[in-house]
Specification:
Elements (H helix, E strand, L loop, with lengths): L2 E5 L6 H13 L2 E6 L10 H17 L2 E4 L7 H8 L9 E4 L2 E3 L4 E5 L2 E6 L7 H20 L21 H10 L6 E4 L19 H14 L3 E4 L6 E8 L2 E7 L18 E4 L6 E2 L6 E2 L6
Helix pairs in contact: 1-2
Length: about 290
């Protein structure tokens, strides 16, 4: 099975993750790639169980699940736990059928080149920090009444590493700035203009500018991303007379606030090997192998 099922945010939704594995199986996809907010919360028991369940389900479906980090994935813990466990393609092996693509990672499947750049800004950062503070205060109160538990609360709901830094991006592009066919990100590029954009806020722009820089450096034919929880398609200029098709994917049904949401909006079958054809009389590139 050479096709890849590209999937939007799962947010640790086990039921929907298993449904996506069945979609992959029906569409002859041997790989599933989740474009961030996968549910990497292994600092909690529920997060570890989610990894285990998805891994078992993927094994049963004969599918390998890959993911990059979103703003709600604890990527620092992924590196801490799995940096020393990489497969031949450089992915971090979290479970036998579950693998993480770190920021700036590049690889090739079926003569098709890919790059992954995770990370984004959380617009609910204040709420998450406030909830962490409340949990810390509750733990301190229990301690005063004799509890021996010392739970760690900081960094459990909001992760300081959620956004890609300029230095991190500089290092990745300096290491390899050659073009790729497919770019996978969590955040949208600044240049794309979805009709419904809940991340159209000044605090989100710096990371969107970073993704835009990745687009203009790597000049992908197609970019897939999540984060907005809405399905849309756009085309943006990526330099040197090239264009990039932007495919924004929706999320699991429990997280969507979009009135026109459908579960089918959260996935896309990418057929490999990927091919593109140039439209006659223009400089625009049209991704011919992607279904409408």
């Amino acid at each position: 099975m050479g096709n890849v099922l590209i999937v939007g945010d799962l947010h640790g939704n086990t039921t929907f993750a298993q449904a996506m594995l069945q979609v992959a199986k029906r569409n002859d996809c041997g790989k599933v790639f989740v474009v961030g907010d996968f549910g990497a919360w292994e600092h909690m028991h529920s997060g570890r169980r989610y990894f285990d369940v998805v891994n078992r389900s993927a094994k049963k479906a004969a599918v390998t699940v890959y993911f990059l980090d979103g703003n709600h994935d604890k990527s620092s813990l992924l590196h801490e736990l799995y940096d020393d466990h990489r497969d031949d393609e450089g992915f971090l092996v979290c479970r036998t059928h579950l693998r993480y693509a770190p920021r700036g990672h590049r690889w090739t499947w079926d003569e098709t080149s890919f790059a992954a750049f995770g990370g984004a800004r959380s617009t609910d950062k204040g709420w998450r920090l406030a909830k962490e503070a409340r949990k810390a205060a509750q733990a301190e109160t229990r301690r005063r009444y004799g509890s021996s538990k010392r739970p760690e609360t900081a960094g459990t709901l909001w992760f300081p590493e959620e956004e890609m830094t300029d230095e991190e991006l500089d290092a990745a592009l300096e290491a390899d700035s050659s073009p790729v066919d497919i770019l996978l990100t969590h955040d949208k590029p600044r240049g794309s203009q979805p009709k419904w954009n809940r991340k159209d806020k000044p605090e989100c722009f710096p990371n969107q500018d970073r993704i835009q820089r990745v687009v203009e450096t790597l000049r992908p034919s197609v970019l897939f991303h999540g984060h907005l929880h809405v399905r849309y398609t756009d085309t943006i200029a990526s330099g040197d007379g090239r264009w990039t098709r932007v495919e924004g994917l929706a999320c699991d049904p429990e997280a969507s606030q979009y009135l026109e949401y459908s579960g089918e909006h959260s996935w896309y079958v990418l057929r490999l090997p990927y091919a593109e054809e140039r439209l006659e009389g223009t400089d625009e590139t049209e991704p011919s192998s992607l279904p409408a």
